[in-house]
Design goal:
Elements lengths: L34 E2 L10 E10 L2 E15 L5 E13 L15 E5 L8 H8 L2 E4 L12 E4 L9 E5 L8 E2 L11 H18 L7 E6 L1 H17 L5 E5 L16 H16 L9 H22 L5 H15 L3 H6 L6 H7 L7 E2 L7 E2 L13 H21 L30 H10 L4 E7 L7 H9 L5 H4 L2 E6 L9 H23 L1
Parallel strand pairs: 5-8, 5-10, 10-11, 11-14, 14-15
Antiparallel strand pairs: 1-2, 2-3, 3-4, 4-8, 4-9, 6-7, 12-13
Helix pairs in contact: 1-9, 2-3, 3-10, 4-5, 4-11, 5-6
């Protein structure tokens, strides 16, 4: 989920115990709500297994849940790390796996970002069978929060495996291993790729349609993985799902001399201002965004290119147009040299109300201790989700899934830094990795989900990245992009969560079609 600038926490050594699972190849008993299955010890990892059912689109979906550790070994057979994951497999009415014919049942590997984020957000927010019922902007619910059936789940369409990379969730390096070896673009991708290879092998899913899905930095991982899985392991996937993507880090970096970020954030500023009541001439959200994109790529980009040589009357006009779109004053914009840093925008937009807007989701607002400051002291859109998701995951995994551990479940872990971006004197850009994967695997399809109120990974930056992937027209048709009237985590918004599900159902259908021909 969260991009690289996020706050991080600490890591503790691995100490976990769990009930171990039954053999995957045996028929599963008739599902009963929330019942833990008998334990056996025929596998190397600690696991708990439960069965349950839910309703999706009026249909009963029975499923098996496996929560556990998967050890990753080095060539000497020594454990390097233990990866915590939660897997959901659909069951037939007789209790057998729906994937008894693996060629017809997709499997999707899901993860969030950070770096340092567990998979809790996609797991208990977007696609798992249960979700946190915490409300939304303007209608937040107080503690204690509830877990409810997730009407946005895609478990009817695909089996799901939620992965916590090393140093997140319960995943830890082995006691004698250096954590730092796992903390970087290449090292992290290699570990997740090895987890996927091993999972496919152990669960006999090599012939299944295969997908990877990431959010935020998880999309960076996904782009690298798509290429790595093919080149290193011969695993050709059917689809890559990118939620709130960040593939080219130049698009979000406001370093001096990099004006592309100023332009690409403009439509999100305009959408945010519109949401909070700045609607000149009563224009619609769609018209506001369209005007921001048109002005941004033409007049605004040209003005920033001219920079200090821009004529004064033209500078005044650009400031006036920016003020019209963003809700900021012309005076402020002139003082800022027509460049709007996200932190300043978040503080300035509602300053007269003594409010600051969220980074992950600019629909949310908060009150800063210092109303006169030049930047927010915290992100109100993160603070409102941290408590509900932390509480829900700790309850769910221990009580509902029966996985016992005294290790803290690291929602957002701190010891992943320093994180090696594998970029020396340049911006990290993994879009070329995704391009390579798509060219080598012409059946590969990509789904891009963008939030209109996302000030962490803005939607126009994602569009810009796709347009610059050097894809031939036929390959551009393989990319499906959808926008949502929400922020970085569009599943917080009820209509967006349902739309995301509907869009993904279409994506799975279309991306599996070439395989069936």
């Amino acid at each position: 989920m969260l991009i690289v600038h996020v706050l991080m926490i600490a890591l503790l050594p691995l100490l976990s115990t769990a009930v171990m699972a039954q053999d995957d190849n045996r028929p599963t008993p008739e599902p009963t709500d929330g019942t833990t299955l008998p334990a056996t010890s025929d596998d190397a990892d600690d696991r708990s297994v439960t069965t349950d059912s839910m309703m999706i689109d009026g249909r009963r979906i029975d499923y098996r849940t496996t929560a556990g550790m998967q050890p990753l070994l080095n060539e000497a057979g020594e454990v390097r790390a233990n990866i915590f994951h939660v897997a959901y497999e659909r069951l037939n009415p007789d209790g057998t796996l729906a994937a008894d014919d693996p060629t017809k049942r997709p499997i999707t590997f899901c993860f969030n970002g950070g770096p340092g984020s567990s998979s809790v957000w996609l797991h208990l927010g977007a696609w798992g069978p249960v979700r946190v019922d915490m409300g939304d902007a303007g209608s937040l619910k107080p503690s204690p929060w509830e877990l409810v059936e997730n009407d946005g789940s895609i478990l009817d369409v695909t089996d799901l495996v939620f992965i916590d990379p090393v140093t997140t969730g319960f995943s830890r390096s082995a006691e004698d291993q250096d954590d730092g070896q796992f903390h970087g673009l290449e090292a992290d991708a290699a570990v997740v790729a090895e987890f996927i290879r091993l999972y496919l092998t152990r669960h006999e899913r090599w012939l299944s349609p295969k997908y990877i899905a990431g959010e935020s930095y998880g999309t960076t991982r996904a782009a690298r993985l798509a290429d790595l899985l093919q080149d290193r392991h011969g695993i050709f996937i059917n689809g890559v799902i990118l939620v709130s993507p960040i593939l080219d880090f130049q698009t979000t970096d406001f370093a001096p001399g990099n004006d592309v970020a100023n332009v690409l954030y403009l439509p999100t500023y305009a959408a945010t201002a519109w949401y909070h009541g700045h609607r000149p001439d009563g224009r619609s959200l769609e018209d506001t965004i369209s005007q921001a994109e048109s002005f941004g790529q033409d007049e605004y980009l040209s003005a920033l290119f001219s920079s200090s040589s821009l004529a004064d009357d033209r500078r005044q006009e650009i400031a006036r147009r920016l003020a019209d779109l963003t809700g900021l004053s012309s005076e402020f914009l002139l003082q800022a040299n027509l460049r709007i840093y996200p932190s300043r925008f978040r503080k300035e937009l509602l300053r007269n109300q003594r409010l600051t807007v969220g980074r992950l989701d600019s629909r949310f607002t908060g009150i800063d201790p210092d109303a006169a400051g030049d930047r927010p002291s915290y992100d109100p859109s993160y603070s409102v989700i941290q408590g509900p998701y932390t509480a829900a995951m700790n309850h769910y995994v221990r009580v509902d899934l029966g996985f016992e551990s005294d290790v803290p479940y690291e929602i957002l872990s701190g010891r992943v830094y320093p994180w090696d971006m594998n970029a020396r004197n340049e911006y990290l850009d993994v879009s070329n990795r995704l391009t390579s994967a798509m060219v080598a695997n012409p059946e590969l399809r990509v789904f891009v989900a963008e939030g209109l109120y996302d000030l962490a990974t803005p939607f126009w930056a994602a569009d810009y990245t796709v347009r610059h992937m050097r894809l031939e027209p036929d390959f551009l048709k393989h990319v499906m992009t959808e926008r949502y009237e929400s922020g970085h985590m569009m599943y917080l918004h009820d209509p967006s969560r349902i739309k995301l599900r509907e869009d993904l159902v279409r994506f799975y259908e279309s991306s599996m079609a070439p395989v069936a021909e």
